[in-house]
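Example record used in the benchmark description.
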Amino acid sequence: MWPINELSICILVLFIMKFTSYSLQNDVPLGSDVTLNCSCPKDAESSCSVSYPMKNSNTKEFHYEDLLYVLISSFCKKNYGKYRCTKSGIAIADSTMTLALKEWKTNDEITMYRASGDDLILLCKPPSEVTHIGWQWTSYDTVTKDIIHVYVHNKSTSIGQFHNHLNCSYGVKFPVSLNDSGQYKCILPNNSSINTINLVTVEVNAYPSPEVFRNGSVSITCRVSHVISNKHVLLVWAKENRYTSVAVKKENITSKSKQITLNVTDIDKDSVNWTCLVFSEYQLVALAPLTLKYKTVTENHSKSKKLLTTTTQGVDISDENRVLHKSRTTHIYFSILAVFIIFLGSLYVLRRRGGKAAGKTSKSEEIQYLSVSFSMQSNGNERNQETSNDSPAGRPEEQEVLYTQIKRSS
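Model output (structure tokens):
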């Protein structure tokens, strides 16, 4: 059963001998969600579809196993009409349903499911004499409260202009995030409520990153903001194959366990398109697609080269750049150390040579005199003589050269 005040709309076509269909209800409250499905295996030879009055932006089609689903969000007058299952363009007998609009009753309550990034449209039809209403929001944990003021005649709200939903009804429209879940009530000036919407939000993500490489692995998670009591909720990770999507993992969730996680390994090009399906009371109520970004080895190598390119505008903090920077820094340190060692060695050699020269000088200062004597006989009269200052003056030398004498002090 689909949780719109126990309202369920379903088309079920059995491809046996005779096609049959049934419906529990075909009156739809303004602004509520509707799910239709046709039982129709999708293969290469034939295709199934659902024909309906006009393909609007608030409808989605999704093939899951042997079923074709049509999800209508925020139903309004433009969605009136007949819906029928077709196979290869031919309408299936007894597979037609007519959807009509149902007037809200006081204190009607419906449940909606929205994936993060989807639009939420709040539609409320107050009495004609009312000029101002408000959408009162309370978070699902009742901690946070707020109100969206709506001015009916000038078609504006406290968060912007009215949204003209499919030219059939004005309402409040805004993109949904996980924290927007909770209860929305349409409040009249006398503080009475017309209708209540319980919003459950859905979020998907990939860890450590949605970017994946061949034969790599990634962990994908789908979670809901909260679980409404007494509602059976099933989460399914479905993988897209050639003709439809098939279930890979299913898990019933509770208020304590609100998510499903799947580890995807040995990734290739055929394992990048995933969808988290949310079933409430055994009926599909929300789709949250997740597409992994497949990268080839060539792209990875090219990316690494770009990361290694240094710039003067900033600092690249990639692992490749850090390794290169560390290597260059190490070379610089070793070069500086080598120059310093050479400098110390040169200084040591110069000091040793200077010490030896100083030692020689001190020894030469100890010499008291140097005497070289020689004589030459020239006709017996002429003599050359050279003496030191310490030799006796006028001392005759008459013999021939006998020796050269160097005297040092002891």
